[in-house]
């Protein structure tokens, strides 16, 4: 299966799903389009909750959709936000994405159209790995 032909297409999908975000408390809408290695694209938007910690970020919604669909390898993620500046994924999302590799390219577009690019490795240079926290090798990562 072929991937998205251009980064503008992936950013466009992130913008479209951003419009479906549920953000009545912050007003900060975010959409994510996560491209798998096989070319499939998985969408997610932020979903807030009156009990703030229960809310979910767009990147993790897209990741959950991808994993539930059987995807385990990813090329890039596009993030669109209603903010004035391109928003990078939060720390929790960075860690969640790193579970599947740190070679991920991250594209972000702000409401005004400004685009920024990062690698996940640059944004999270020391991701947590269970195998590193468990030198005896008792716990093993699943896949």
Give structural notes.
This protein has 143 residues and is α+β, with helices and mostly antiparallel strands. The chain has one domain (4-142): Cytidine Deaminase, domain 2, CATH 3.40.140.10. Helix content is 27%, strand content 21%. The protein has 5 helices and 5 strands; from the N terminus they run αββαβαββαα. The protein has helices at 7-18, 58-68, 91-98, 120-123, 130-133; strands at 30-36, 41-45, 74-81, 105-109, 115-119. Strands 2-1-3-4-5 form a 5-stranded mixed sheet. Strand 3 (74-81), helix 3 (91-98) and strand 4 form a beta-alpha-beta unit. The chain is globular.
Task: Give a quick rundown of the structure.
This protein has helices spanning 7-18, 58-68, 91-98, 120-123, 130-133; strands at residues 30-36, 41-45, 74-81, 105-109, 115-119.
């Amino acid at each position: 299966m072929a991937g998205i032909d251009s980064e503008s297409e992936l950013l466009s999908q992130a913008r479209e799903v951003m419009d479906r975000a549920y953000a009545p408390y912050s007003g900060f809408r975010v959409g994510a389009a996560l491209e798998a290695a096989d070319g499939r694209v998985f969408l997610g938007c932020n979903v807030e909750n009156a009990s703030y910690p229960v809310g979910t970020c767009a990147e993790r919604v897209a990741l959950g959709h991808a994993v539930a669909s059987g995807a385990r390898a990813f090329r890039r993620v596009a993030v669109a936000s209603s903010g004035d500046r391109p928003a990078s994924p939060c720390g929790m999302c960075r860690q969640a994405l790193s579970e599947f590799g740190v070679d991920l390219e991250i594209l972000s577009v702000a409401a005004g159209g400004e685009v920024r690019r990062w690698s996940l490795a640059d944004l999270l240079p020391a991701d947590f790995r269970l195998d590193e926290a468990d030198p005896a090798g008792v716990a093993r990562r699943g896949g």
